[in-house]
Amino acid sequence: MSDLAAEVTAALGRSILPSVIARGAVGLRVVAAEDGVVTLAADGSPGAVLPVLGRIEAQLRAAVPAVTAVRLAAPAADAAPETAADLAEAARAVLDTEINPAIAAHRGRVTVAGVAGGWIRVRLEGGCQGCSLAEVTLRQGIEPLLRSRLPQMTGLTDVTEHEAGTEPFFSPAKR
């Protein structure tokens, strides 16, 4: 292990890992550290790490001045889905293993409602249905993660009836 990797690993353990684990990841580890660029891999739910990667980078750069950039490694990809059914199943797998564990803390869940022409239609349920931050969750959390795992995906559409939500985690009144 390089000196940079060792310093970053120590910094992760001191201040970053507890908050990442609280968000749904099992752990965060250094997979590469070269020329100031550190590549991290999340064990468990990378979806829990992606939304806070900027904060993680800022903390690491402050703790280890030699760090110039932080990247998150994508898990090993399986063969690319070839049909709509394959893409739907691949999307379900990503949602169930990486997204849903993270949003369960908000009593939420995301399901695949269908796939057509590379467009994945999702439905937000539980605390996500009617949540005032649902669009942010979709566009800044779920969509980038699905795009990174499923490059053949054309886009993401929300088909949730948000007005029917009875217990949103953040009600529109909380805006």
Query: Which percent bin holds the helix content?
Result: 40-55%
Q: How would you spell out the order of helices and strands?
A: HEEHHEHEEHE
Radius of gyration (CA) equals 17 Å
CATH superfamily of the largest domain: Fe-S cluster assembly (FSCA)
Distance between the termini: 46 Å
Level-2 CATH architecture of the largest domain: 2-Layer Sandwich
For the record, what CATH class of the largest domain applies? Answer: Alpha Beta
Number of β-strand runs: 6
Classify the beta-strand content into a percent band: 15-25%
Q: Estimate the mean pLDDT confidence.
A: 83
Please outline the major beta sheet: 3 strands, mixed
Low-confidence stretches: none
Number of helices: 5
Structural class: alpha/beta
Gross morphology is globular
Layout of helices and strands:
Layout: H1 3-22, E1 27-34, E2 37-43, H2 46-49, H3 53-63, E3 69-72, H4 84-103, E4 108-116, E5 119-126, H5 134-149, E6 155-158
Parallel strand pairs: 2-3, 5-6
Antiparallel strand pairs: 1-2, 4-5
Helix pairs in contact: 1-3, 4-5
